[in-house]
Design goal:
Blueprint lengths: L1 H30 L4 H9 L3 H26 L7 H17 L5 H13 L3 H26 L7 H26 L1 H15 L1 H15 L8 H28 L6 H14 L11 H10 L6 H29 L4 H16 L1
Helix pairs in contact: 1-12, 2-13, 3-4, 3-10, 3-13, 4-5, 4-13, 5-6, 6-7, 6-9, 6-11, 7-8, 8-9, 10-11, 11-12, 12-13
Length: about 350
């Protein structure tokens, strides 16, 4: 019915508008007062060899993320790592060019299409992956706050983030270990809204729980933590190489802090590819280490460009290799979501 379409359209439309306005406002703030001639000299003097090494570390971290995603799936995961890597990179490609982080949904759809793994189960592993990353990064920022003059904005954001992500983590624990009492309560609320939705949700929650096997296997949990440590170590090293390429004499702690703040900022609504928010929060993260905003913006631009171009290129290669069309994926993903809730 037309009324239903309008009700679905406006929230999505408003979400896109808010994301673009916020990204534009942050981009304006970060560009204000920048010495562009100094910024240009910094970019021109960049060491190409170190930039290539940084990109190589970034590519390696993508492979490790695919291995970690496969580890989160547990014993039911297919042996071929290719499908996890290609699904993930196609999702990153979608995040780079589409609004509202649609890539998170597209990567789940592609993995389901290629392997038959349940979308609900894969969704649980993606959610768990994000929560684990966020909790570790919030903890890192909290520890570094004892040694650094952490900006008030970052402190407040981490406090809010710690409450939100810890609550989500506890919610997943309840869903997994107290399913007999917790799930019926959720279904009763759903039934109040719609009986058909409640019936569908019962199956979705059961499949979603299948993605939480990491809670029941110490070996699997340790493997996920190990790969998480490797991922953030490599990405910190990549930032260190880019700093060196731009002739920035900053401690390794600055690179770790930049990675932590940028990664946590991804929860904020943003334009495709995190344009504006990425640059703003990189400069904010460097505030305790340098007052030169122009140099900080130089790091932000090079770091963002290397991340964006690498993930986009790998995503396009994977899209071609799997014989898929991004436009068709978007259409089918929307159709699949509507079918799931209809």
């Amino acid at each position: 019915m037309p009324v239903k379409k309008t009700a679905e359209f406006w929230p999505r439309w408003l979400k896109y508008v808010v994301a673009f306005l916020l990204s534009g406002a942050l981009l304006y703030l970060v560009l204000r007062g920048v010495d562009f001639s100094r910024l240009g000299r910094q970019l021109k003097s960049a060491d190409g060899v170190l930039l290539v090494l940084a990109i190589g570390l970034g590519v390696t971290s993508h492979f490790l993320r695919a291995i970690r995603w496969k580890a989160l799936q547990g014993d039911r995961a297919v042996k071929n790592l290719r499908f996890f890597f290609s699904s993930m990179m196609i999702g990153y490609l979608a995040n780079n060019i589409l609004p509202a982080r649609m890539g998170e949904i597209i990567r789940i759809y592609v993995l389901n299409k290629k392997t038959g793994l349940s979308k609900s189960t894969s969704a649980a592993t993606v959610v768990l992956e994000r929560i684990i990353d966020a909790l570790i990064l919030v903890l890192l920022v909290a520890v570094m706050s004892f040694f650094l003059p952490v900006p008030a904005m970052v402190q407040r954001g981490c406090l809010i983030g710690s409450v939100v992500f810890l609550s989500l983590f506890l919610l997943l624990l309840l869903l997994d270990f107290k399913a007999e009492s917790f799930v019926p309560r959720i279904l009763r609320v759903m039934a109040f809204l719609s009986n058909s939705l409640s019936q569908k949700m019962q199956g979705i929650l059961e499949r979603f729980r299948n993605g939480l096997t990491v809670f029941h296997s110490g070996k699997q949990f340790l493997a996920v933590l190990f790969f998480t440590f490797l991922i953030w170590s490599l990405e910190t090293m990549a930032v260190i190489f880019i700093m060196a390429a731009l002739h920035m004499d900053l401690p390794w702690l600055a690179a770790l802090f930049v990675i932590a703040v940028i990664s946590l900022s991804f929860v904020i609504p943003a334009a495709p590819g995190a344009m504006g928010t990425y640059e703003f929060f990189t400069v904010v993260a460097l505030a305790p280490f340098t007052k030169d905003k122009s140099l900080a913006l130089g790091l932000a631009l090079v770091l963002h460009a290397s991340m964006y171009l690498t993930s986009t290129a790998l995503g396009l290669i994977c899209l071609w290799g799997e014989g898929l069309s991004l436009r068709a994926l978007v259409i089918r993903t929307h159709s699949s979501r509507e079918a799931d809730v209809s």
